[in-house]
Amino acid sequence: MIELTVPGDKSISHRALILACLADGESQIEGLLVSADTEATASCLRALGADVPALSNGSLVVRGAVAWSPSGEVLNCANSGTTARLLTGLAVGLGLGVTVDGDSSLQRRPMDRVVYPLQAMGGQIAYSGSRDRLPITIQPRASGDLRPLRHRGRIPSAQVKSSLLLAGLASRTRVEVWEPWPSRDHTEILFAQHGAPIVKFKAERGHAARFDPDGWDGLLRPISWRVPADISSAAYLLAASLCGTHPVAIGGVGLNPTRLGLLTVLRDMGARIESTETGSAGGEPIGRLTAEPSTLRPFHIREALVPSLIDEIPLLCALATRAAGVSRLDGAAELRVKESDRIARIADNLGALGVRCEVRPDGLSVHGTEGPLAGRVETGGDHRIAMAFGVLASLPGSRIEIDDRACVAVSYPDFWSDLARLLPCAEAPVGL
């Protein structure tokens, strides 16, 4: 059994930094993900006046109760959609005047989904260029309160939910967000850990989270804790074990129930995989994952399961090439507005490797094959695509070239060296 570790959870790391800056005192964070995306959030928070030290090795003390800076800052969110959406909500809640922007990839991702409800709360937000796209400009709020909001999201989105809850928290305004299926709830858990009044409940037509400041003293308490390891990063090493020859064990992994769709699908595929809960960190369950080489069956992923494995879909589609039969993905239109159009990107790259694939607006079908895979993968700078196809590229007999191996730095800077522990072919790029 090969023992490996993976970086801190990316989703939680963003939220941990933001909530620590809002807390009344010093929060100590261990195990924070140090990557391009979290560096973007840290940099933007510093631009707003927050005292966020260098992330260095992921161990840091953040001093809260920030004297937020005057208006006019430009927040460069780089490639991080989480940074852009969450800090848009924070800035509106704090009444700060800022411009939110990012790289060319981020400028192609939709923003209406957070802008419209924030405007409904009274936020003054305008698009500087194309509608529904960055950059956006938020006008400062000199006086007056934001309006309470009850938002019914048509598509589950933890980023939208978190943006609106942060706007409510920062402005002490009641916010209620409804979703047809539960999205990841790291924001709600961290609100509770810091002492904010947050309630999650199952509603008649879905799931909801409510922030209600009535009777609250308005203070967030600082916390000291360790960020769980990222199950989305662990997924690639589990897949490498399933398709390779070495069992693997990964400890300290976050086992939040809203993130376990991956394990459900892998087990349905016949994967020999085990999870053991060993404790908790910051209100998040953590545990140990193990996997062994397995013969895989096709999967059928339906819409209700998609929010719990949205980041792992490229990997599951890559694994589908090694399962005898046809795997089917439905209800995943949200993938078209990630770092790339992931449905199109998955399908194009599968086709380039000689894998038969049928595409639909909200999903695709993948025909498994026993034949060797060869071709060039175009990542479009998408870290999830690079890592998913990187697992296939590292299997014996594959002749797959990944055009941009460096883009994994967004979430997992040491991915290639860790993968090589299980699949030695990952050590160096393949030349075709």
Note the main attributes of this structure.
432 residues, alpha/beta, 4-stranded mixed sheet, 12 helices, 30% helix, 23% strand
Characterize the structure shown.
- The chain has 432 residues and is α/β, with parallel strands linked by helices.
- It has helices spanning 10-22, 36-47, 81-94, 112-120, 158-171, 186-194, 231-243, 261-268, 313-320, 342-352, 383-393, 415-422; strands spanning 2-4, 26-30, 60-63, 73-76, 98-101, 125-127, 136-138, 149-152, 175-179, 198-203, 206-211, 224-226, 248-254, 272-281, 284-292, 300-301, 326-329, 357-360, 363-367, 374-377, 399-402.
- Strands 1-13-15-14 form a four-stranded mixed β-sheet. A four-stranded mixed β-sheet has the order 4-5-7-6.
- A hairpin with a 2-residue loop joins strand 14 (272-281) and strand 15 (284-292).
- It is globular, with a radius of gyration of 21 Å.
